[in-house]
Structure to design on (1195 residues):
């Protein structure tokens, strides 16, 4: 290197991002496991920071979720709505329709079915339950249909519209609770009456039968997406609407149909949550499940069996954190915090599937 | 008349937290990042602001803490979406869940460790955040009440909104930022430091959201700590961005109008025909939904969401 | 200063390489250019021209090698660096912000302070008059024509006072006349001491504007020659790597029966303007009808209206006397009309990038099988068949098509369309992005169809190809048909004038 060259400031960037050959599935799984472990370490640091032993707490979470038959049942109960709502969302997401309105669709499903649970509770049990499921499907489906209609007709931004519909649905419940459906026996405090036993879901193995519906749906949604013409159409529309039209598909119809199904499944989630767990129509019937479901569906790569696994893990965390509260007096919100940390790491690790960082001089100027 | 002025004043109070959230989100979206983590960033700001105020009894430190907390939340989002190119929707939602969770977790933790029933802001800071009084000006009938009797947050919010408006529309940096939001490839080729400017604005937006959160925790509940004090205001702010058509100046009016919707139920005569409260609560969302639909029908090229919003930028994309 | 210009190269590349994933885009390139010189960078599609230039403009960072500007070794890690070194690049796909006006786009990213619009406007008009450019500074980009946009791009570079200008395929979107105007501007800049690199694959342009030619092939620099010592034949051989005849076959077909009759076809754009105005033409079996026009003259609307993808304002499209207007794309495919349509943006429309060949084969035919479930067996068979017949290079038929090279993607698409035994084959830009060998495979496929009696509508961008391949050429300008000419009796200049808007009474074939 001669003198004049030494004076020149050669500024090669410290780190730069480049695309890499796409990784194999095995590598992707490995990468996610590493991210998960890193997240546990980060979560552990957080726990350490507030003065607890991370190993002890993690152990409490896992053992808490399985320590007794009742604990396991509670864990499954947490899982049911999460699993089902994630399956519902998956149909929309596969179509790249960003349905973040599962909250609202769950609520509307619960509202529609509650009408029958509250006012037709003397119908034969099986008939009533079937009607509740159908009406719940319709309620959620309609709530999914609204953004689908405007999206297909005017290309209205569905992310924001479904978000608004969540709140509108929430206030539908508060309207019913404060007025028409107010429980007269509640002595002034506004709430909706508890469902009659006839309108409650039956239990199988000690848990409401929603878990069986959920498991069946896992298989049905999987088959629907992979082996049917509808599923094929959803994938093509998700990739490009122009391509689907060119191929002669009726894009509008596909969007509407898929969103009815997506919203409908979320609606059934509402039925199962209200008539199976809450035994009434509460404003908290969705309780953020619709949002968490988006994350579950995304983490599972929109694979129904993956969703089963992820939603189970999430409910272990959820149940475990409630045990953590009773044992250590820590807020149940610790579950959200840990969920968040895990997700942040997994979101970050996705990057390494398609890209890599190159450090200064590595493979650079020889 | 008096009732109407009270109503307007109450609308301003109710709209102020929305103003912070909205302006913060506009700064995000103008840089091409649809950040659904507003609720989370506001929650972080709510917790940090309140606790800093509670512990130090100093408004400036409280505001700074809220700003930094919102900014820290935004930093997570920025690292993931700008550097690691993660999905914006999922990252934002995660930030919301994380932010609410951490805020409530920490709030309960403080409460349990304080050995009291509730956490209340000390007197000094409580006085600082109460409504101001300017001799003479505040005493002018009507005008004094309408303009010179708010708490410091209100004025701060308006100043921030107007500054952001000037920054976006009348400075070189603002022009560069708008270009990034529309077409980061073009901006990059023109020599704009895309990554740097994106970070700057996402972080700034997060900090502004954080201050809005502090309003929720310090003002709305009368200086007493409550969990979930943001309670959906962050999500309304995301909606308000559309209503304000991505302009910080319009956000001032938009948030006060939305504030008015929120308190309308307390100011309507309840004589012969009463509309259920739920409908008033629903109104802002219904109107935002309508605005959303109408703008999509009009298909105007102007006043739209920045074109690159939701899509991450990678220079070497082929 | 003048001493410096004479003795030092404007740009000197030494051993520059760039690798994408597993693809070597540039391999050990050594190249230089002086001030006051126009260098043409010649090479086929995929030969690495654009990648190389993107390393000069800071879009890509080289994996190996050094770059020197005016004699000093530099590191260009971002477009900002490039601009600071006086390099301006005009990309093939314009880098403009649509919702901003011309002025804002021009000053975007410059270091200077915020100027009042009035002052800025004067400043810009000043520069543009110096170089003979025409511009409306306050016009929004989305209201501009392609050549207006290019003017803004050039002004962007001039405004920054760049001494080194790189243009990537600047003439692809221009008429021959607009191209001449551009070259005049470039020569003016050269006289004022600029170093100019123009990327192109059009030989006659290379010969008319450049001083030297650098030829790239498969990522390697093959040779650098003086333009005055060279000729078309030599350059082609260097570019392709072997002697080629540039002649495209044009077999003659005797019996020509009209199959498609387009009558007074008009199409409205989203913004209310007319995308197509009263188009009339007949398409016959056994002919290739070329469609010429600068980009955005109505080609897309023409294709999409015949395929039933957009709404028609007025007029009719008769296929075997049956009007197909108002039918859904599905019906147009199903009615036995077998309209086959290779869309402009082939991955964006004709194929699903994330799916493999198998699933792409059934894109239009999946509805034909009975029942609720899909049957992948026939498409798998077809995929395997096409893979062998057209020698499509892919590890297996389930590999996502987006991972395949451009030529192979085009073969998949055309193969599927031809397999459906169409009567009418509409194809838009089928050789875009392909190297010469692949292009000739496509031309042969089209000629094969023509000989079988298929009516081919060929929308092209290279006038030389259009003139050699098609029997007749229809010229579009601003959505209007400027006439149909017989390729045996027309010249490139004539078509160029029509592309620019001059009407021509051509031959409308026999009735």
């Amino acid at each position: 290197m001669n003198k004049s060259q030494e004076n020149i400031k050669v500024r090669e960037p410290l780190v730069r991002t480049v695309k890499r050959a796409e990784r194999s599935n095995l590598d992707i799984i490995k990468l996610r496991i590493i991210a998960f472990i890193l997240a546990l370490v980060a979560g552990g640091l957080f726990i350490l920071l507030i003065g607890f032993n991370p190993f002890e707490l993690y152990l409490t979470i896992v053992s808490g979720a399985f320590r007794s038959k009742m604990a396991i049942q509670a864990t499954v109960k947490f899982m049911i709505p999460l699993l089902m709502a994630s399956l519902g969302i998956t149909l929309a997401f596969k179509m790249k329709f960003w349905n973040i309105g599962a909250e609202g669709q769950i609520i509307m499903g619960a509202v529609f079915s509650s009408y029958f649970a509250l006012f037709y509770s003397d119908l034969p049990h099986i008939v009533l339950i079937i009607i509740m499921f159908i009406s719940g499907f319709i309620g959620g489906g309609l709530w999914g249909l609204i953004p689908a209609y405007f999206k297909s007709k005017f290309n209205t931004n569905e992310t924001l519209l479904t978000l608004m519909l969540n709140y509108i649905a929430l206030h539908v419940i508060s309207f019913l609770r404060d007025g028409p459906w107010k429980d007269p026996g509640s002595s002034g405090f506004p709430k909706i009456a508890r469902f009659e036993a006839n309108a409650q879901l039956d239990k199988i193995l000690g848990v409401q039968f929603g878990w069986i519906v959920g498991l069946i749906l896992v298989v049905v949604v999987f088959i629907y997406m992979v082996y049917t013409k509808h599923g094929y159409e959803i994938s093509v529309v998700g990739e490009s609407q122009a391509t689907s039209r060119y191929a002669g598909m009726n894009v509008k119809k596909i969007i509407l149909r898929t969103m009815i199904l997506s919203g409908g499944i979320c609606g059934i989630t509402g039925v199962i949550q209200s008539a199976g767990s809450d035994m009434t129509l509460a404003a908290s019937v969705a309780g953020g499940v619709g949002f968490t479901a988006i994350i579950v569906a995304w983490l599972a790569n929109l694979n129904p069996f993956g969703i089963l696994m992820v939603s189970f893990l999430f409910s272990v965390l959820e149940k475990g954190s409630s045990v953590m509260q009773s044992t250590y007096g820590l807020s149940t919100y610790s579950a959200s915090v840990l969920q968040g940390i895990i997700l942040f790491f997994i979101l970050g690790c996705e990057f390494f599937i398609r890209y890599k960082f190159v450090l200064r001089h590595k493979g650079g100027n020889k | 008349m008096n009732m109407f002025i009270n109503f307007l004043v109450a609308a301003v109070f109710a709209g102020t937290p929305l103003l912070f959230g909205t302006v913060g989100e506009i700064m995000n979206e103008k840089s091409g990042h649809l950040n659904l983590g507003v609720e989370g960033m506001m929650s972080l700001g709510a917790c940090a602001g309140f606790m800093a105020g509670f512990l130090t009894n100093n408004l400036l430190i409280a505001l700074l803490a809220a700003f930094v907390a919102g900014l820290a939340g935004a930093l997570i989002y920025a690292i993931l979406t700008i550097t690691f190119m993660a999905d914006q929707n999922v990252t934002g939602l995660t930030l919301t869940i994380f932010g609410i969770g951490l805020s409530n977790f920490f709030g309960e933790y403080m409460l349990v460790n304080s050995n009291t029933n509730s956490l209340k802001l000390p007197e000094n800071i409580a006085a600082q955040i109460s409504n101001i009084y300017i001799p003479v000006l505040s005493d002018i009938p009507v005008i004094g009440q309408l303009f010179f009797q708010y708490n410091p947050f209100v004025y701060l919010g308006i100043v921030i909104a107007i500054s952001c408006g000037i920054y976006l529309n009348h400075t070189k940096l603002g022009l560069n930022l708008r270009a990034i939001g529309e077409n980061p490839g073009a901006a990059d080729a023109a020599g704009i430091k895309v990554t740097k400017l994106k970070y700057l604005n996402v972080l700034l937006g997060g900090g502004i959201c954080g201050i809005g959160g502090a309003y929720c925790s310090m003002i709305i509940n009368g200086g007493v700590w409550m969990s979930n004090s943001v309670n959906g205001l962050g999500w309304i702010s995301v909606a308000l961005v559309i209503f304000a058509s991505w302009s910080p100046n319009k956000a001032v009016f938009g948030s006060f109008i939305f504030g008015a919707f929120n308190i309308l139920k307390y100011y309507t005569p309840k004589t012969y025909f009463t509309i259920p409260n739920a409908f008033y609560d629903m109104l802002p969302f219904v109107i935002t939904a309508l605005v959303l639909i109408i703008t999509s029908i009009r298909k105007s090229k102007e006043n739209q969401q920045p074109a690159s919003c939701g899509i991450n930028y990678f220079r070497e994309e082929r | 200063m003048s001493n410096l210009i004479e003795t030092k190269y404007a740009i000197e590349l030494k051993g520059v390489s760039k690798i994408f994933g597993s693809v070597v885009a540039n391999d050990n390139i050594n190249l230089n250019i002086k001030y006051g010189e126009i260098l043409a960078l010649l090479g086929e599609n995929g030969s690495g021209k654009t990648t190389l230039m993107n390393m000069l403009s800071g879009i890509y960072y080289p994996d190996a090698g050094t770059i020197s500007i005016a004699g000093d070794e530099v590191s260009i890690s971002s477009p900002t660096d490039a601009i600071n070194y006086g390099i301006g690049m005009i990309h093939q796909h314009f880098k403009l912000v649509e919702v901003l006006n011309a002025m804002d786009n021009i000053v975007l990213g410059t270091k200077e302070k915020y100027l009042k619009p009035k002052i800025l406007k004067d400043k810009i008009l000043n520069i543009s008059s110096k170089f003979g450019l025409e511009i409306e500074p306050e016009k929004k980009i989305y209201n501009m024509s392609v050549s207006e946009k290019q003017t803004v791009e050039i002004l962007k570079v001039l405004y920054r006072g760049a001494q080194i200008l790189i243009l990537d395929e600047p003439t692809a979107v221009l008429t021959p006349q607009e191209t001449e105007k551009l070259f005049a501007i470039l020569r003016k800049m050269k006289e004022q001491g600029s170093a100019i690199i123009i990327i192109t694959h059009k030989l006659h342009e290379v010969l008319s504007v450049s001083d030297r030619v650098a030829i790239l092939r498969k990522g390697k620099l093959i040779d650098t020659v003086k333009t005055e010592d060279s000729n078309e034949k030599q350059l082609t051989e260097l570019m392709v790597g072997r002697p080629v005849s540039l002649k495209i076959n044009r077999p003659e077909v005797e019996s020509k029966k009209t199959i498609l009759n387009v009558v007074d076809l008009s199409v409205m754009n989203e913004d209310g303007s007319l995308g197509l105005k009263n188009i009339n033409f007949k398409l016959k079996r056994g002919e290739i009808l070329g469609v010429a026009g600068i980009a955005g003259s109505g080609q897309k609307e023409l294709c999409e209206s015949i395929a039933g993808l957009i709404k028609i304002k007025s007029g009719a499209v008769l296929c075997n006397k049956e009007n197909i207007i108002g039918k859904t794309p599905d019906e147009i495919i199903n009615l036995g009309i077998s309209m086959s349509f290779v869309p402009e943006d082939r991955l964006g429309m004709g194929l699903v990038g994330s799916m493999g060949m198998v699933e792409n084969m059934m894109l239009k035919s999946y509805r034909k099988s009975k029942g609720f479930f899909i049957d992948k067996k026939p498409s798998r068979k077809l995929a395997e068949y096409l893979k062998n017949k057209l020698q499509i290079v892919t590890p297996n038929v389930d590999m996502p098509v987006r991972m395949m090279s451009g030529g192979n993607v085009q073969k998949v698409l055309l193969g599927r369309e031809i397999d459906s035994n169409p009567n009418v084959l509409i194809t838009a830009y089928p050789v875009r992005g392909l190297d010469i060998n692949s292009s000739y495979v496509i031309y042969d496929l089209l000629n094969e169809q023509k000989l079988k009696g298929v009516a081919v509508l060929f929308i092209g961008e290279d006038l030389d190809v259009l003139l050699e391949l098609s029997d007749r050429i229809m010229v579009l300008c601003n959505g209007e048909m400027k006439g149909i000419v017989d390729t045996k009796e027309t010249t490139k200049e004539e078509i160029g004038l029509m592309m620019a808007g001059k009407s021509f009474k051509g031959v409308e074939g026999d009735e």
User: Anything to note?
Assistant: Residues 125-154 of chain A form the longest helix (30 residues).
